[in-house]
Amino acid sequence: MRSLNGDATLDDQPLDDRVLYYVGSRRSEMSISSRTGGRLLLIGGPPFPEKILMWWNFGARTEEEIVTAHADWEAGQRFGHVAAYNGPRLSAPSLVRLARPNPVS
């Protein structure tokens, strides 16, 4: 869940704007409220059956897929353009090291 703007609470705890919150995969309910009509983005679904690698803006199942995503990003292929962003395209950081798979995924 991500708080986009405005006030919001999750289970009576205030949420900060523009912060991504992980609320767990075994919840059967939660209480969300806002006094002023805050906006939230909820993303959910069943957990992936395999381990997922996360690196910079990329998610993949193998290091090779991360390397391919990095090359595609730098070549301006496969990834869309953000029309509302006013500035030069960001370069992906160097592939010095990749994170280990997330044990929660």
Write up what this structure looks like.
This protein is of the alpha+beta class and 105 residues long. The protein is built from one helix and eight strands, in the order ββββββββα. The strands form three sheets. It has a three-stranded antiparallel β-sheet with strand order 4-1-6, with no helix packed on it.
Number of distinct beta strands: 8
Given the C-alpha coordinates, what overall shape results? flat
What does the average pLDDT come to? 85
| Percent of residues in β-strands | 15-25%
Oligomer: single chain
Uncertain runs are none
Biggest sheet strand order reads: 4-1-6
Rg: 17 Å
Q: Which structural class should the secondary elements be placed in? A: alpha+beta
What is the percent of helical residues?
A: 10-25%
H/E series, N to C? EEEEEEEEH
Distance between the termini: 16 Å
- The count of helical stretches stands at 1
Main β sheet profile: 3 strands, antiparallel
